[in-house]
Amino acid sequence: MESTYLQNNKGKYIHVFSCCIPVKGHERGAIYDLQREEIELVPNTMIDFLNHIKNKKLNLILEEFRSDAMAKKYLDFLQKNEFIFYSDTLFFPELADKSINEDTAILQFMTITLSDFMIDNLDTIVKNITELGVKRLHIHIDNRNCMGTINDILLLLEYSRVTNISFSVPYQKIDRKLYNNNRLKFLYLFNSPKEKIETNNEVLSIFIKINDAKMFLPKFNVNTLDINTTAYNIAKNYNLSIYKTVFVDDQGKIKFNISDEISYGKITDSFERIKDNAVPELSKLWNIKKDDIAPCNICEFRFCCTAVYVPFKTDNGYAVSCNYNPYKAEFN
Question: Domain of life, per the record (predicted)?
Fold first, then answer.
């Protein structure tokens, strides 16, 4: 017997919330809830069903699938999880393919490995970070007594455009004054004797056992997922994993990640040289969408994954070597 809720909505159209994005993968599908910033892994048959019922009247769907128990389960699941709704209105606007509020910063995300060379050139580096428009900055320091250095860096960045700063440092006592800095969001303490998370003001201190050698190696996991409207918009138009994102090694070389053998310039170069030479070369790869990269193009996570794999040219286009196998929905 159909529920009273379905009975009351029989004459209405079925609509998918614009913030709920169905994505079909090779082995399974996913529904991105951009508003709640969550992901629901579902069978591909549910993605097919969802695309089929969209903008159709409920009574026609109930009649079409009257003998299909699984279809009714899917309908109940989609409604209860608020992926769909019913309305007398035939048309509702879709999420725009490209945001009119796209960030105009030249680079958005930067990871820096600190060294004596980098410290000697901090003024130039901070100047370039500011002019490039970097919003999120991570600094890696391999020094067991670096609280003073962190305070100095935060002071240098006081008038920068950076709004989100994080540091990774060896396990040590934290200077509590750091917790008063509004830009500081995360402290990662590696080589910790035990794993734990502490929150002070709005700063998250994450104690991890692994050493720094493994921290920046590209690797897909649940922590590399970025599920929100901005990330999805970027993923639809660019490569979310590397878009306006760079890694700067201890010699100041600008790369995509720690394993990248190509240097696109140096962070100590003039701003004009970085903007005119390095950025156009970087953009050649970040403009390659994951729909054009194997096996990303058949992966259910392709519009929310930020694992920094650099695509390489193949006879058939582009590819990456990822630790997740979307053909089996398993990790290698």
Answer: Bacteria
Nearby residues of 326 by Cβ (< 8 Å), 6 or more positions away: 25, 26, 27, 295, 298, 299, 300, 301
Q: Identify the band that residue 100 occupies on the pLDDT scale cut at 50, 70 and 90.
A: low
pLDDT at 139 over 70: yes
User: CA-CA distance, 256 to 278, in Å (whole number)?
Assistant: 11
Length of the chain counted residue by residue: 332
Distance CA 33, CA 40 (A): 8
> Which one, of 263, 264, 329, lies nearest residue 299 by Cα?
329
For residues 300 and 25, the answer to whether their CB atoms sit within 8 Å is yes
Task: Examine residue 295 and say whether the peptide bond preceding it is cis (omega within 30 degrees of 0).
Answer: yes
Instruction: For helices 69-80 and 44-53, give the axis angle rounded to 10 degrees.
Output: 80
Averaged pLDDT score across all residues of the chain: 94
Q: Domains of the chain by range and CATH?
A: 10-87 (3.90.930.60), 109-286 (no CATH), 290-331 (no CATH)
Q: Are 280 and 266 in contact (CB under 8 A)?
A: no
Tokens of 303: 């519009």
Q: Write phi, then psi, for 157 (nearest 5 degrees).
A: -90, 5
Q: Give the per-residue pLDDT at 1.
A: 42
- Cα–Cα nearest to 275, from 102, 130, 111: 130
Q: Dump pLDDT digits (tens) for 260-282.
A: 999 999 999 999 999 999 999 99
Q: What SS3 state is found at 32? A: strand
pLDDT band (50, 70, 90) for residue 220 = very high
Q: Using alpha carbons, select from 261, 267, 272 the residue that is nearest to residue 118.
A: 267
Whole-number Å distance between alpha carbons of 26 and 29: 8
Give 49-62 pLDDT, tens digit per residue.
Answer: 999 999 999 999 99
Strands 312-314 and 245-248: unpaired
